[in-house]
Amino acid sequence: MASLSGELQLRLDNLHIGVAAEPPADAVADEDEELFGLYEGTPLTQRTGDYGLTVPDRITIFQGPLERAFPDPAEQLLQIRITVLHEIAHHFGIDESRLAELGYD
Predict the structure, then answer these.
(1) Confidence (pTM)
(2) Whole-angstrom distance between the N-terminal and C-terminal Cα of the chain?
(3) What average pLDDT does the segment 38-46 reach?
(4) Is residue 57 part of a domain?
(5) How far is Cα 45 from Cα 57, in angstroms, rounded to an integer?
(6) b/e 42-79 (16+ beta carbons within 10 angstroms → b)
(7) How many domains does the chain contain in total?
(8) Residue 52, domain extent
(9) pLDDT tens for residues 10-24?
(10) Is residue 58 classed as helix, strand or coil in its secondary structure?
(11) Average pLDDT along the chain
(12) Cα-atom radius of gyration of the chain, to the nearest Å?
């Protein structure tokens, strides 16, 4: 998070970022695919004037899948950064197809 620009950090509104050991079973659509992160909430682009007094959006990074897929610590750190940026992009309203175009799929 510290490597994000100050302007970007200021725009992370009502957001909590945490780590969990594994993703919930209902979050994984394909059992052969590992889920590294999950965004849950209302993207900034969809918030209306009556948005308020709302629990924070959540980004959860999943330790187990990342450790299994990237046993090398350097690769793991890189993928954690990519995953966090991917989930932050969802907070800003960027969808999966655009993230794929940008190389963050």
Answers:
(1) 0.84
(2) 19
(3) 89
(4) yes
(5) 13
(6) eebeebeeeeeeeeebebbbbeebbeeebeeeeeeeeb
(7) 1
(8) 6-102
(9) 777 788 999 999 998
(10) strand
(11) 86
(12) 14
d(CA 44, CA 14): 10
Cβ atoms < 10 Å from Cβ of 83: 20
Domain membership flag for residue 1: no
51 falls within a domain: yes
Residue type at 23 in one-letter notation: P
Residue labelled with tokens 């394909």: 30
What pLDDT digit, counting tens, does each position of 62-90 carry?
A: 999 999 999 999 999 999 999 999 999 99
Q: Quote the strand ranges of 41-91, DSSP E.
A: 57-62
Q: Would you call 13 helix, strand, or coil by DSSP?
A: coil
> Which CATH number covers residue 65?
3.30.2010.20
- Asked whether residue 60 is assigned to any structural domain, the reply reads yes
The helix or strand, by DSSP H or E, that contains position 89, with its residue range, turns out to be: helix 73-91
Using the structure block, give the residue that is written with the tokens 């959006």: 57
Cross-strand pairs, 92: none
Beta strands 15-20 and 57-62 are parallel
